[in-house]
Amino acid sequence: MRTVSSVCCYCGTGCGVRVQASADRVLAVTGDPDHPSSQGRLCSKGRALADTVRRDDARVLQAEWRARRDAARIPLALDDALDAAAGRLADAIARHGPDSVGFYLSGQLLTEDYAVFNKLARGLVGTNNIDTNSRLCMSSAVSAYKKTLGADAPPACYDDLEAADVVLIAGSNMAYAHPVLFRRLEAAKAARPDLKIMVIDPRRTDTAALADLHLPIAPGTDVALFQAMLHVMARDELLDRDYIARHTQGFPALAARIRDCTPRAAQAVCGVPAADIEQAARWFGRAGAALSLYTMGLNQSSSGTAKNAALIHLHLATGQIGRPGAGPFSLTGQPNAMGGREAGGMATLLPGHRDPADAAHRAEVAAAWGVDRLPDKPGLPALQMFDAVLDGRIKVLWIAATNPAQSLPDQARVRRALRAAEFVIVQEAYADAETLDYADLVLPAATWPEKNGTVTNSERRISRVRAAVAPPGSARPDWRLACGVARRLAMRIAPHKAALFDYAGEAEVFAEHARLTAGRDLDYSALDYAALESGPRQWPLRDGMDTARLYADGRFPTPDGRARFVDVTYEPVADAVSSEFPLRLTTGRLRDHWHTMSRTGLSATLVQHVEEPWISLHPHDMRELALDEDALVRVRSRRGAIVLPARADESLEPGRAFLPMHWGSGFMAGDGVNALTNPARDPISHQPELKHSAVSVAAARLPWQAMGWLRGDAAALRRALRPWLARFAYAVLLPSALGGGSLRLRLAAEAAPDAVLLQELARALRLSRPAAAFDDPARGMLRRAGLDAAGRPDAFMLAGDLRAQSAMLAWADCGQAPAGLARLLMGRGAAVARGRTVCACMGVSDAAIAAGIAAGLDLDGLKAQLGCGTGCGSCVPEIRGMLRRRIPATAASAGSAI
Ligand SMILES: Nc1nc2c(c(=O)[nH]1)N[C@H]1C(S)=C(S)[C@@H](COP(=O)(O)OP(=O)(O)OC[C@H]3O[C@@H](n4cnc5c(=O)[nH]c(N)nc54)[C@H](O)[C@@H]3O)O[C@H]1N2
Ligand SMILES: Nc1nc2c(c(=O)[nH]1)N[C@H]1C(S)=C(S)[C@@H](COP(=O)(O)OP(=O)(O)OC[C@H]3O[C@@H](n4cnc5c(=O)[nH]c(N)nc54)[C@H](O)[C@@H]3O)O[C@H]1N2
Ligand code: SF4
Ligand SMILES: [Mo]
């Protein structure tokens, strides 16, 4: 057994982990007390990492390809697959030129992966068509940092959470998305109750629950709010005129612009009381140290760059930057979106924070790589790349470590593009990612914890990622797959370049990349793997020393050393609400799921927090639409529709709706959440407006309903049952912890399926010969339960009549087969309320917590008696919410989960 130090592969907090492993098994993952960014803390996702490590069929274990689109894919030796990829690329380049190739990569790649892909795309293929899912994530933050501060560098660090006396959280639900940082903020607030926290979010999230002031802003209107705050600060003389004069430029134009941006005017746009805007401005303007933390509520917007800039302006205008506790701190989403920005892993960037439009920058990179020149034609950002695939400009698309058939907006269009491409290469680690449906060639990728490399977290800290086990099957690290194709492609199109991809290992790739940062704002050219052995390092390195905070001297990386105010104006969201689409839908994250769930969906612990997708609506809208709790609804936007249950949620304002981003076509009928979302994008960052779509919600009349449950490995069962999703108007496959690991299935249709289809369904659910049955196929009813050889619950189905649902779920879970199974199936058993897990670490349900609250326990009492909240602490905000509301268990399941 050995232990390696590495980093959690989920969010940009970048917590350090220790991985205990035997030859080919990860035994345990714990927090690394020596990691300076996290000091041993992990959230529920980090603690469940070991559960998601798979080496079986849940993984892509070998390469596959298909000769024709209508053929099934067949396994292929890895060498042949790399040859095939090189052959298709060479062919496209020869026939249509280098820009007929596109690379769509991911903020979850390691810096070494980006470095090699970048050299392959720009240095060998000769195209700038290389972009990543960071386009959906961080690109507005990048654009705004560059426009205002002169370089793409978050100026603050995590220690500023404790040093600040005002924290402004905008468009971030860090209680869910950056839980370990939120833990620090909670602790800071507990230690110093006068620390002021403000949250700007259309929803009253668990993050907002910690705030002294919550501004439930109308989606998309942040610029108006920030400009009004600046207006108040100017009016009340809270600006740092001296800082503005000495360290910035462009303020007069902005000052003129905001003269009319009164809080009253902003109230009309943002739906936030003017008095609260005044309050927020005064707190910020009078703060000793003001820190802002912001993420997708600002970035994922058709005015994302303007939103970011308008917030940064508040800091520049008050001199709240470059000091402990002060600064505009954009939190990174993915674990290595920062590394991607450093390595130039986007169409609009080159390595070392360089610009592909700058000839000198191109020449520097070309020289470092040993190639003559880099292409000067601008590359296509993500959405435009898919447009180019659709209209035939791009023939070969290579996708790695991202799942665009779920995560890109306007899925109908994305899927048309994937079908239209001549050749799609998908480099994937997990076997059930939706995008694999469109792959002509599958390359088997190694994943965490099988990869070596580096990542950079939100506070500019570079950590080593270390492999704990070897990859299973033919899977290989992403950079190696890229090198394998690159060498073969070079032999076909430019043999002298083949040697450019002969790296001895990750250390050599990193060294080449790090050299490219020399003399740049992020300079870490002094680093190599040996230097990183002593622990993570925070760029830029000056005289060999880390830098915790940037711009302490008020000098910015612009030609004149001054930061810029940019003249921004409020622009409304792209998708206007109308009588046909009257509701404002926003989308976002849940605490225990990661994106498209290819990994978190495999953990029996993590799937328990929120077991299924639903749309949240304000109770008033539920009444207006005459919807009962959990009624199935059809949600429509101008681009698509999905069917799912609706639930009342007091954390929303009337007229607004929320959907989690996690469920796609691999889990539900239809194209998933992004069937609805809008591809409209910010003109500067090209980031799409994933946070706002105008939608309508109406009851879906689907009277025939069914549910099923099967014990076993949820991933394998899901693969077997996935074809059923397409056969019903509403269908979901839900990995479940019930009975120690299982899959649930929910279906609904306008009319009962015929008897043949029902029997087929029963067979798929292992219920052809059930232990107990209560059938009436003519009326579409089949109620059955089966036992395994040991007499334990194995499967059940309730088709056409769901009355027995909660009794059967309890039966499935408790593992006993009562004599009266048939009675239970008929719905004559006692209904058992099943709790929802709130505390994932200790397995404590909402029912148990509600009972504790009813018995008079406070937070400490609940922790002591039930153990909840004593593990990673990710559930504490939710428990606090329950305490505040003193809500009963069933209502808690409905309301507080998102
Ligand atoms: N549990 C979990 N954590 C994650 C991830 C995950 O998948 N799961 N993913 C990681 C990644 S890649 C990212 S990018 C981050 C994202 O982290 P966050 O940005 O914190 O997460 P989201 O839930 O997408 O959105 C944040 C909030 O923006 C609000 N919002 C919507 N529209 C607006 C608006 O117009 N203005 C304002 N001010 N707010 C608005 C939403 O109501 C939501 O609460 O999370 C990272 N961490
Ligand atoms: N509606 C809506 N949509 C959104 C968002 C939203 O807020 N709302 N947020 C957007 C944001 S911020 C983001 S970051 C994206 C995320 O969207 P995606 O990037 O599509 O989401 P993931 O599920 O993380 O996809 C990563 C894929 O890589 C695979 N994988 C894991 N490890 C490895 C590896 O080491 N190598 C390789 N080659 N593959 C690996 C995983 O199995 C998975 O299929 O979603 C965006 N889409
Ligand atoms: S906060 Fe959680 S998900 Fe993010 S890096 Fe830390 S342990 Fe991983
Ligand atoms: Mo993201």
UniProtKB/TrEMBL annotation:
Assigned keywords, A-Z: 4Fe-4S, Iron, Iron-sulfur, Metal-binding, Molybdenum, Nitrate assimilation, Oxidoreductase
Note the InterPro entries from the entry.
Asp_de-COase-like_dom_sf, BFD-like_2Fe2S-bd_dom, BFD-like_2Fe2S-bd_dom_sf, CT_Nitrate-R-NapA-like, MoPterin_dinucl-bd_dom, Mopterin_OxRdtase, Mopterin_OxRdtase_4Fe-4S_dom, MopterinOxRdtase_cofactor_BS
Q: Domain of life of the organism in this record?
A: Bacteria
Protein's GO biological process: cellular respiration; nitrate assimilation
The record's Gene Ontology cellular component field reads: membrane; oxidoreductase complex
Q: Does the keyword Oxidoreductase apply?
A: yes
- Is the keyword Iron assigned to this protein? yes
- Family per record: Belongs to the prokaryotic molybdopterin-containing oxidoreductase family. NasA/NapA/NarB subfamily.
User: Know the name of this protein?
Assistant: Nitrate reductase
